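Regression test attached.
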Amino acid sequence: MQTPGYLQRYSDSDRMNHWALVLLFFATALSGLAMFHPSLFFLSTLFGGGPWTRILHPFGGVLVFLSFGGMYLRLARDNLWGADDSAWLARSGDLFAGRTHDMPPAGRYNAGQKVIFWWMSATLLVLLLTGLVFWRPYFAGFFPIGLVRLATLVHSLTAVGLILGIIVHIYAAIWVKGTTRAMTRGVVSETWARRHHPRWVEQMTQKR
Amino acid sequence: MSTLQSLDIAKRSATTTRSPSIRREPEVAKLIDVTSCIGCKACQVACMQWNDLRDAVGENEGTYDNPLDLTPASWTVMRFSEVEVQAGRLEWLIRKDGCMHCEDPGCLKACPAPGAIVKYANGIVDFISENCIGCGSCVTGCPFDVPRISKKDHKAYKCSLCADRVSVGLEPACVKTCPTGAIRFGTKEDMKEFAADRIVDLKERGYQQAGLYDPPGVGGTHVMYVLQHADQPHLYHGLPANPKISPLVSLWKGVLKPLSLLAMIGAVAGGFFHYMKVGPDESGEEKAE
């Protein structure tokens, strides 16, 4: 522990992986939204116009997938569902109402974070697979038109689902003060950690 | 290409408000009488010539179909089908394939690029290629498998019903050149009347199932066929009996769009008001920071 009162939550490489994912996600989500709703087509200007938006979006998507793959390998183990998680989730109504005390103690991640993690994992996999089916000019020609239609619909629906998950993810970081430090500097205060992730603090201090 | 002025555009892709629609125009239609077609392909040649397109010379596949399929540079092809509707009585059905110019065009509905596909007030559906982004959504949306994406420039192409000729009072090039009068052009009303007469004629000659192909599933089309076996359109190289925009496409380009926008805006607004109501979740050390 470098600084007293702080715990290391993420390594530098964890954080760089996360922020690369953030940039790639925004580029891919905005280019996708440009092609999803006419009122958002103006976003294509950010990517150099309509054709460039269409060309870049799928490559961005593949990079998002690979980059999330890095996060997955780093974090999946700590996101495995435990018995306490169901209890935490059952109490999440209190949490949102601001009654944040007396939540069942969480480990490195609480049940809400785990739900978001697995939601992101699942939606990104679906987005990759469905996206390949109508990726022109490379792959769309290999699939029957019925499958292309289904894939397009599922891709759009899943993308909206992912974006909603990301909105929750970002909001949680804004709402719970002291959280963003974990990703900007790699450390969190011990007070924060004891309040939000007491089991994780136990693990960390045992290691010491 | 866009050859008519903005007052003549009735529908525009990826546009959520109405196009200028003060002017009313008679709807036009091309009527293809399959029963008088001799398969000479003069229409294919005229199409190439007027639109100044030269497709690559292909391979003979052992049939009269040449080219074998629609391509970015071949906007119309003759489809030859040998069928025996009555056993022992061979019929050679020749259908001029190409864009049907649907009243409710699936391509236009699916297209995400504003103004890349327009439907003129006279009913012609046209691709404005300079606005095309090459995504292929028109292919996904089309119930007739008509648009083709060029491998050269990644733009979508199809028959324009010679919108440029029609706008200056000429008939489409294929109509102009047809030596048997199997292809006609005029107002949709006139073409329906003409077809009705022809169908009476065909019925007198023993084609009891003769009829007009103007499928209601896509709101009718601005390219119609007179078929001697209108009860079995699939005989004509798989012409769909009841084409309509796939429900998957309708869902994707219908309710999903506004609902998704609402959900995303709702999530952000929900977060904002949650923060304002409940306040930040502080651990208690913030003052020390």
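Expected vs. actual: identical. DSSP finds eight helices and eleven strands in chain B.
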